[in-house]
Amino acid sequence: MYLLCTIGASLICFLLLKWMKRRRLCMDIKRLDGKTVLITGGNSGVGKETAVALAMRGARVIIGCRDPERAEKAVQEIKMRSHNLNVLHMHLDLSNLRSIRDFCHKFLEKEQRLDILVNNAGMPSVLDWTDDSFSMCFGVNHLGHFLLTNLLLGLLKESTPSRVITLTCSVYKFQKLDFQDLNYNLFPFFTYCRSKLANIYFTQELARMMEGKGVTAYSVHPGYVQSNWTCHYSILFRMLMQVVMFMFFVPCEVGAQTVIHCAVADEVTQHSGGYFSDCRHIALQSISKDPGVAKKLWEASERLVGLA
């Protein structure tokens, strides 16, 4: 009797976990032949799975990565899995504004078009600083992608219809932006939440500015994904999180589905500036729906990265 109860409880737990991890898949089969895609952090995790999926559809895929060795290894894997040889990497360090400018200069020299920009790379909640003295989360997750997108915006407009997809997270709702201290780095998790809220406001303001110009923008929560973000922490924490991720998080290829959906589906264009999760447009909480805050953040970001 005890054995039967144990087996029954285990089965129920297993089914419950499967139900909690269920996700929609992108069912759109659109091809991307002749299109150019740039994915930051495309050497691992959701970024790499997105690169594979878009390369399989015929796109020219460029991944931006700061580690040439890891990038080249990822490129070979993406080519093999997608059967597309038109995949390459370029050096990009989002924690260094000079590196971003150098990358964009080289990209604009080499590339004739940019149809889809996926701002995928990100830093977890770590207490660290960028080369330009910004908190690592805010500097990489928001400011780095803000500068990158702005420097490539001219090519995006020339390549219309084009799309900008920025990965965010549902933890955006736990913090507000403090314009007296955007570089807040006292509690790393709070800094991470603010950077993800900034991603959403950035997407909204970009969509407003590009309205009628052929460039649409989307923020995407890929879900909680079994990626390598724990590499920034101690061995003990990594071991603990491996168990948690196995039980509750989804594989990277599943996490990439909403990014792919926003890259190819025609239906998303009516929601430019919107927030997507599980291949659906999701209503945002009130904390992230103030157009005045979005405009103020854009102007503050311009000053911080030297665009103003």
From TrEMBL:
Gene3D superfamilies per record: NAD(P)-binding Rossmann-like Domain
SUPFAM superfamilies: NAD(P)-binding Rossmann-fold domains
Keyword annotations of the record: Oxidoreductase
InterPro entries associated with the record: NAD(P)-bd_dom_sf, SDR_fam
GO MF term list: oxidoreductase activity
Domain of life: Eukaryota
Pfam families documented for this protein: adh_short
rRNA-binding as UniProt keyword: no
Family: Belongs to the short-chain dehydrogenases/reductases (SDR) family.
Protein name: Si:dkey-174n20.1
Organism: Scleropages formosus (Asian bonytongue)
Gene: si:dkey-174n20.1
